[in-house]
């Protein structure tokens, strides 16, 4: 008889213990439900958002540019080359004809983007260097700060 009581007690404890997660789920949402993984993965990165806001109008959504006017960012030696120089292109813009890509020159002017923070320039260049068929390493805010310092603006 004592054995049966013990068994019943254990059974009651187990039932109560097992019902806790269910009760919790009803009261407060677990972290995973509040931020579904699928949403995080489809949300554009900061770099992509800045690209869409400031660069896409001239360099196009897929980085292919506009013939004669705006150069492509696809497999460009400027994009994948020296980071200090690349950052300065974004900081200063250009009056045109200065940065040929694959032997073609482009006549439109690029507006300066020195109003963007170090973090934002780093993010957009990291995005450009790892998209549009490019496979180069990231640009850090510290590298942008250093380029801005030697650039004078
Ligand atoms: C108003 C149009 C315009 C906007 C906006 C613009 N660019 Fe440009 N970009 C140009 C033009 C035109 C050139 C070529 C200038 C030259 O050859 O002197 C250029 C050149 C470049 C180059 C070097 C050449 C190449 O294609 O690799 C890079 C890199 C670049 N832009 C990146 C960016 C990024 C990143 C942004 C956004 C932060 C941006 N540009 C915004 C028009 C634009």
Automatic annotation (TrEMBL):
Keywords: Heme, Iron, Metal-binding. InterPro entries: Cyt_c-like_dom, Cyt_c-like_dom_sf, Cytochrome_c-type_DH. PROSITE patterns: CYTC, PROKAR_LIPOPROTEIN. Residues 42-132 form the Cytochrome c domain. It comes from the Bacteria. Pfam families: Cytochrom_C (PF00034). This is Cytochrome c. It comes from Agaribacillus aureus.
């Amino acid at each position: 008889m004592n054995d049966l009581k013990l068994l019943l007690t254990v059974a009651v404890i187990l039932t109560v213990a097992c019902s806790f997660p269910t009760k919790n789920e009803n009261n407060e949402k677990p972290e995973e439900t509040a931020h579904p993984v699928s949403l995080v993965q489809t949300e554009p990165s900061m770099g992509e958002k800045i690209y869409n806001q400031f660069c896409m109008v001239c360099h196009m959504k897929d980085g292919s540019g506009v013939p004669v006017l705006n150069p492509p960012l696809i497999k460009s030696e400027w994009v994948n080359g020296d980071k200090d120089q690349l950052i300065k292109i974004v900081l200063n813009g250009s009056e045109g004809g200065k940065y040929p890509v694959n032997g073609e020159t482009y006549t439109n002017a690029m507006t300066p983007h020195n109003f963007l923070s170090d973090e934002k320039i780093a993010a957009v260049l990291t995005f450009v260097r790892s998209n549009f068929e490019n496979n180069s390493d990231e640009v850090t805010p510290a590298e942008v700060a250093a380029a801005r310092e030697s650039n004078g603006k």
